[in-house]
Design goal:
Number of helices: 2
Mean pLDDT: 79
Largest sheet: none
Helix content: over 70%
Radius of gyration: 26 Å
Number of strands: 0
Low-confidence stretches: none
């Protein structure tokens, strides 16, 4: 028989396992598991959105840095040309 390979856990499943009890306790004694799961998902989705926004910020900052370097290289070459022509 083939060996059993354990199913991979996603980042959300690790987060869910860690947070579900804490969230359920913070919602109060009458809170259902469904309410706790909803809260965990909302928090996780907002964090995912922040992560996505962070990645976009990195991309745009890299683009900006590339443009700044290109502009500086352009200034350097013009300055060198000006020095050579004098």
């Amino acid at each position: 028989m083939a060996p059993v390979v354990p199913k991979a856990k996603t980042a959300f499943l690790y987060y869910q396992t860690e947070m579900i009890g804490e969230v359920k306790n913070s919602l109060g004694p009458g809170a259902s598991m469904g309410a706790a799961m909803t809260e965990v998902c909302i928090v996780y989705l907002s964090w995912s959105c922040l992560y996505s926004c962070f990645l976009q910020m990195i991309i745009y900052n890299s683009l900006m840095a590339t443009l700044v370097v290109a502009k500086m290289e352009s200034y350097d070459s013009r300055a060198e040309d000006a020095v050579r022509s004098t």
